[in-house]
Amino acid sequence: MSQGRIAKVLTSIVKWSVLTVGLGVVIVGSGYGIMKATVPSDEEMVKRIGTIDQDHLDDVRRKNKLIIEAIIANSKSDKPVWNAPTVEDIDKAAAAESRRGKA
Known about the structure:
By secondary structure, the protein is mostly helical. The protein has helices at residues 3-38, 42-49, 54-76, 87-102. The longest helix has 36 residues, at 3-38. The model has no long low-confidence stretch (mean pLDDT 84). Keywords: Chaperone, Membrane, Mitochondrion, Mitochondrion inner membrane, Transmembrane, Transmembrane helix. It is found in: Membrane; Mitochondrion inner membrane.
């Protein structure tokens, strides 16, 4: 192949690569923008529904926090996964700790 032909092929490859990446950025950016425009925040969702009990929401948030704490504790533990503390174990320990703190 001649030098001119190789340059044309490489130029074409670079052009199509840039166009493909640009199109991908537009598609992903559009999806992100649509998601941000349509998905409500937690506070907006509570206002819209209105029938959710705030105590129930606080309980669900507390349980989610306990699950995350259990995952973090299990990841730092050297114990096998079947011997690692469960969410219930952590919940009981937190309840006992709060009882000791109040007493």
